[in-house]
Amino acid sequence: MPDDVAAFDEMNIAGGGVRPAYETLAHWLKSVPEGLLETRAREAEALFRRIGITFAVYGDAESTERLIPFDVVPRVLTYAEWATLSGGLTQRVKAINAFLNDVYGRREILRAGIVPEDLVYRNPAFRPEMNQQPVPHGIYVMIAGIDIVRVDGDTFYVLEDNARTPSGVSYMLENREVMFRLFPELFAQHRVAPVENYTDDLLATLKSVAPISASADPTCVLLTPGQFNSAYYEHTFLADKLGVELVEGRDLFVKGDIVYMRTTQGPKRVDVIYRRLDDEFLDPLTFRPDSALGVPGLISAYHHGNVTLANAVGTGVADDKAVYSYMPEIVKFYLGEEPILKNVPTFRCREADGLGYVLDNLKDLVVKEVHGSGGYGMLIGPKATSAEIEIFRQKLKKDPENFIAQPTLALSTCPTLVEEGVAPRHVDLRPFVLTGRDKVRIVPGGLTRVALKQGSLVVNSSQGGGTKDTWVLDC
Amino acid sequence: MLSRTADNLFWLARYVERAEYLARIIEASTRLANLPSAYAGSSNEWESAVATAGCAPLFYQNYDKATRETVIDFLAFSPDNPSSIRSCFEVARTNARSVRTALTMDMWDAINSAWLDLGKYRASNLKQDEQLGGFLSFVKETGLRFDGSAYRTMLRSDGYWFSRLGVMIERADNTARILDVKYHVLLPDAEHIGGSLDYFQWSAILRAVSALTAYHWVYKESLKPWLVADLLILNDQMPRSLAACYESLVRNLDSLSLAYGRQGPAQRAARAIRTKLENARIDDVFQSGLHEFVSDFIADNNRLGAAITQQYLT
């Protein structure tokens, strides 16, 4: 992102003054003794390392376990801002669930021509195995992590709908813990809405979606690919806080279309699986036969309604970047409402007009693969060399359907502790939306990711971004 | 609990215990090797260390000769030796990571810090006995810290019992092997049993298991081989003795069977071995051969390990 694009600063008002939500924090930042923030930052890092809150970076031979940099300056949202966000998120996830029920069921939105059929059918995340297979209670996405960016005082855009297996919630919770320990005085001065009840909410959500045949106290487990997965820390953290078993595929088996786990007291029936394993690894009998991570027969048990998978199989079709571009229409189609949260304006390279515009304006646009994630395989036009732009031009011409493009957004900035002191850095926000049979639950806040390099817009942890605590203030 | 979790706890405890034992073996061998030449045996202390650790064949695939350097490298650091201290710590940490939810913070911290600190030590930096001593203390302290953390912080439920079973099966095996050192360290022909070299060898064994003072308190006599064996095999006051390990194994298996409401082959096997130890008399043990007794015990102990695995851990 070029530094010349004026970004909205969440703390400072252009031309002087501080936005009301940040008044106490700004005052405190001015008055802290020299070096205190740096000391606390080092303490925070030591705490994170000691607790072992690590993140594995694929292809990084030198350090398979790395800390995500933690910034000690919190990001502040007002309760009013949060109320809007929370309403918009609830609406969005309702629409996503309706969409998934529809594309694996009656397909009205396709027949109505709102979303092109081939976008769904030819989507690699679309699972034909789920056609006409109802899921328990009609809920596909129990756990969503929706990425939000802010461009001015009033405008939040949804950047991505992560409807598969979003991660990062452990950082939201650990960041708050660490802040409590390091800055008790700040909490005394602010009324920060709590997020600690997230794990209770998650457990309630998971229990609420148990199969109808399950007992009154259903058995939930968390299924992990194992300790080499990049989010393994989070899996152990959540299992611990939920008080459920952290299982690997080999701990489960299926007999008579019922799922059991192997315990020291013999087989125990499992009702709900919060799986942090991608669709194609879940069951070698249905998906990849070479996968040793999954459970043979799991999908059959699922189709017999004997176990709930959270999230359901095939949800990826909703967080595909090409489908994303239709989300405003999807919200209107199912809910008959105007979307509360906007989409980033998106050009679809699959459409001739879109492709033409994108090819003519590559240097101003961010181009993304429709199925990409983690900040890989994208072009940031204003930052790219002309050679890189040419390479992407060829890629686009060769396979336009694989790409969408968006204008480079002036992502808002928040004060962040960096080498030269406290300076504005670009941020995004990932709140976590829980959908149960009874209701939608969202704890006020989320994971704020921050690009630590000056001017950088890439906040992904796999690309060296950091995180900070997110405060929703009762003010 | 998940069988895999129980299995990991069991082996985690075993590997930490084994690392400590290897440190003790190296310590005893250093002591024997440092005897003044007037007492010196056939200078085969380092060979006996490898034999005692139960990994002689693998050792001689990798090295020609057992010397201080090669044995310390092999027993402490070699990644090619699946039972080196380094390998033990590595497997322990891998196991710990995969069952973090079943460990207390203190236990995780003990094993994770040990793994991180191990990187500071290299075989090449342990040429002086003083430096070696520092390293061996670090390994033994890791064992103490891990064991102590488990003792002080774990819920008294199945996870704790499985982890104690791991400790005790491994410890019984190790004590038996340490006793067998005397079988492997042959006295030179000119030396007679009960002579000064014999004496030093027995005292090195007692020191290796931190039992020299205990010996004097219990027997109030100068070192006698059959009394050392009595202390380490039959005396249930001695926490490393085979009898004490089996007291604990039976007790922890009973706790499990009580909690789970049923018992099986593991409980029966443990009781049978305990009874054998209760009925044994040290004179008879020596009569029929200490080495034979110890070998039988090691085989029994392995069978109990297999029974526990069969009953609970698969």
Automatic annotation (TrEMBL), chain A:
Residues 74-451 form the Circularly permuted ATP-grasp type domain. InterPro entries: ATP-dep_Glu-Cys_Ligase-2 (IPR051680), CP_ATPgrasp_2 (IPR025841), UCP005522 (IPR016450). It comes from the Bacteria. This is Circularly permuted type 2 ATP-grasp protein. PANTHER family: BLR5612 PROTEIN (PTHR34595), SLL1039 PROTEIN (PTHR34595:SF7). It comes from Phreatobacter stygius. It holds the Pfam family CP_ATPgrasp_2. SUPFAM superfamilies: Glutathione synthetase ATP-binding domain-like (SSF56059).
From TrEMBL, chain B:
It comes from the Bacteria. Residues 1-313 form the DUF403 domain. This is Alpha-E domain-containing protein. It comes from Phreatobacter stygius.
